[in-house]
Amino acid sequence: MTVKTTRKTWDPYAIIKARDMIKLLSRSVPAVQALKIMQDDMACDIIKIGNLLRNKERFVKRRQRLLGPNGATLKAIELLTNCYVLVQGNTVSSIGDYKGLKWVRKIVIDCMNNVHPIYNIKTLLIRRELAKDPDLVNENWDRFLPKFKKKNVKSKTKGTEKPKTSERSPFPEPPTLRKVDIELETGEYWQKQTVRKQQELQEKKEKSAEVAVQRREERLKREHTAPKEATKQKGFEAAQHAHVTQQARSTEDAFATAEALKSKLKPKAASASSSATAQDYIATKQRK
């Protein structure tokens, strides 16, 4: 495609604007938005993001972060920067003023470098609020801006640390020896079969003797260890305490029954004593 001026062209810079408009149209920007580039206060920026990452899956994920859920993140970027942004393939096309284009490029490149766009969006929101205050227009805003720290540091878990090894040798590790190879090295392979069987039987006898000695020692340890007296004494004390409490309860019950019987017998004894005193008095009167 070629771009030419005509006799009606009064702005010499229009040829550069027309070239940028063709670039935007080739990047699938709508014609209504691409025509805005012909205005004097408008510029465009086509950011190449295809060569920033090698991993295709990672590239697709980070490009999706620019759009956000239902295009919410892209809409927020457009509102804060006053720019039109279009994510298409391996490029990001933006149209707006120079200040906004600068922020769009920073957000896009940071997003491809694993910095979420929300951090830059927060910074832009704070800057917008600070710009409204006339006292802070000529001051440095670094003390008001947030400072985000990376938190995705991998923690070293126990048991996963690999031992530090020396430089890796270019030669492969030697293969593990078979049983026949070991016999060939030791010379057992050339011995007679009867001799080998005798050696195997001798080794088995020695192993069984070692196991028998260990078992005998363990049995002697169990036999010579004294029984635990503390537990028996505790059981005896508990039984004795239970017996004493039972005796105390029986004596208390006996005292209670005795008291009840005394309380029942007292009125009868009082009536008998009163009748005896009355008879004595009558007898003394008759004598007189």
Explain what you see:
The protein is mainly alpha-helical and 288 residues long. Among the domains are: 14-136, Ribosomal Protein S8, Chain: A, domain 1; 179-224. It contains nine helices and three strands. The protein has helices at 14-26, 31-34, 56-67, 72-81, 98-112, 117-132, 179-186, 193-224, 229-287, and strands at 43-48, 84-88, 91-96. Strands 1-3-2 form a three-stranded antiparallel beta sheet, with helices on both faces. A hairpin with a 2-residue loop joins strand 2 and strand 3 (91-96). Helix 4 (72-81) packs parallel to helix 6 (117-132). The chain is flat and about 165 Å long.
Task: Give the tags.
Ribosomal Protein S8, Chain: A, domain 1; mainly alpha; 6% strand; single chain; 288 residues; three-stranded antiparallel β-sheet; flat
Helix content: 55-70%
Under the CATH scheme, the architecture of the domain at 14-136 is 2-Layer Sandwich
Give the C-level CATH assignment of the domain at 14-136.
Answer: Alpha Beta
Full CATH superfamily name of the domain at 14-136: K Homology domain, type 1
Low-confidence stretches: none
State the order of secondary-structure elements, H for helix, E for strand. Answer: HHEHHEEHHHHH
| DSSP strand content | 5-15%
Largest sheet: 3 strands, antiparallel
- How many strands? 3
* Mean pLDDT rating: 80
Radius of gyration of CA atoms, rounded to a whole number: 53 Å
**By helix and strand content, what is the structural category?**
mainly alpha
